[in-house]
Amino acid sequence: MDAVDALIEIAALLERERASRYRAKAFRQAAAVLAALPEQTRWDADALRAQRGIGASTFEVIQQVQRGGVPDYLIQLRASVSPERESELRGRLRGDLHSHTEWSDGTTPIESMVSAAAALGHRYLAITDHSPRLRVARGLSAERLREQIPLVREQSTPDLTVLAGIEVDILDDGSLDQNPSLLAELDIVVASAHSKLRMPADAMTRRLVAAVGDSVVNVLGHCTGRLVQGERGTRPPSSFDARAVFAACAENGVAVEINSRPERQDPPDELIGVAMAEGCLFAIDSDAHAPGQLSLLDHGAQRAEAAGVPAERIVTTWGVERLRAWARG
Question: Which domains does the chain have, with CATH numbers?
Answer without folding.
Answer: 3-80 (1.10.150.110), 90-327 (3.20.20.140)
